[in-house]
Specification:
Layout (H helix, E strand, L loop, with lengths): L16 E4 L12 H15 L8 H12 L2 H7 L6 H8 L12 H8 L4 E5 L4 H11 L7 E3 L1 H4 L20 H11 L6 E5 L2 H9 L3 E5 L10 E3 L5 H4 L12 H18 L2
Parallel strand pairs: 1-2, 1-4, 2-3, 4-5, 5-6
Helix pairs in contact: 1-2, 2-3, 5-11
The chain binds magnesium ion.
Magnesium ion binds next to loops.
């Protein structure tokens, strides 16, 4: 049974929409997914790009640091990498069963009446698999992902013609704002990456840094885990009907979270 509160969407909540990053925001990749991903990228660098095995780890780190992702870095350096091939190599073989259903998160998301959208650098297949494993895919109206930001990449053989576009590029954020049709000033953007949060701030989002106890400069909120939004950002649930609503909501949410974690 759904523990949906469905508060009416009033004018008092400062948010019309919530935009969530996926990896390390809605689930922790520390369960082993992150390590497997790193291994797959390193294997790709060795098997498909010819880097020596001993350098794969360093190359991966440098590409990520300088270009935001290994794929973006490889293409910027002139490697003719097909994004679909890359994604099926590095994501296709991930141990997705390590991602577990999260009924606590599901109940929380279902209690939020505003629009909810995913904005991830990952490819669509990965996003859908992870959301399916968490059992929260139907909580989101839309997935903005690698393919949304890079519609022309497959059409071009020249790697310099369409550079890979990803967060934290402002261009990527502008595509997301347009695709999601949101008013950034009335949108809460949640992400575990400090640079993404900073870019989100530039385009006008209200921002929450996930996975940290302390806010970065550009973050309006810090959430150690995403479900802490109940305590840290209770204004999400404000309906504007009366001033006590926010307190009621908080205790209602606490009890929802307390009961659902038992059956998880
Ligand atoms: Mg992330």
């Amino acid at each position: 049974m759904d523990s949906c509160m469905n508060p009416s969407r009033g004018s008092a909540s400062p948010f019309d929409s919530l935009i969530f990053d996926l990896d390390d925001t809605l689930y922790s990749s520390k369960s082993g997914i992150g390590q497997a991903l790193k291994r797959n990228v390193e294997d790709f660098l060795v098997e498909k790009c010819g880097f020596p095995e001993s350098e794969a780890s360093n190359v991966n780190r440098e590409l990520f640091k300088n270009y935001g992702s290994s794929l973006a870095g490889l293409r910027a350096l002139g490697y003719d990498i097909n994004p679909d091939e890359y994604h099926s190599f590095v994501h296709g073989r991930l141990p997705y069963d390590l991602i577990k259903p999260d009924s606590r998160l599901r109940n929380l998301l279902q209690s939020i009446s505003q629009r909810k959208i995913i904005f991830t650098n990952s490819d669509r297949i990965h996003a859908m698999k992870a959301l399916d494993r968490l059992e929260i895919r139907d909580c989101f109206e839309k997935i903005i992902c690698f393919e949304t930001m890079n519609p022309n990449l497959l059409k071009s053989k020249r790697t310099d013609e369409f550079p890979v576009l990803l967060k934290p590029s402002l261009k990527a954020f502008r595509i997301a704002v347009e695709d999601a049709e949101v008013d950034p000033r009335r949108t809460l953007f949640l992400d575990d990456n400090v640079k993404n949060v900073a870019a989100g701030k530039v385009v006008g989002f209200r921002t929450a840094l996930v996975g940290k106890a302390i806010k970065s400069k550009e973050a309006d909120y810090a959430l150690e885990v995403v479900t802490n939004m109940v305590q840290v950002i209770p204004e999400i649930w404000l309906s504007g009907e009366n001033d006590e609503r926010i307190n009621r909501t908080r205790s209602e949410m606490d009890s929802i979270l307390a009961t659902t974690s038992v059956g998880a």
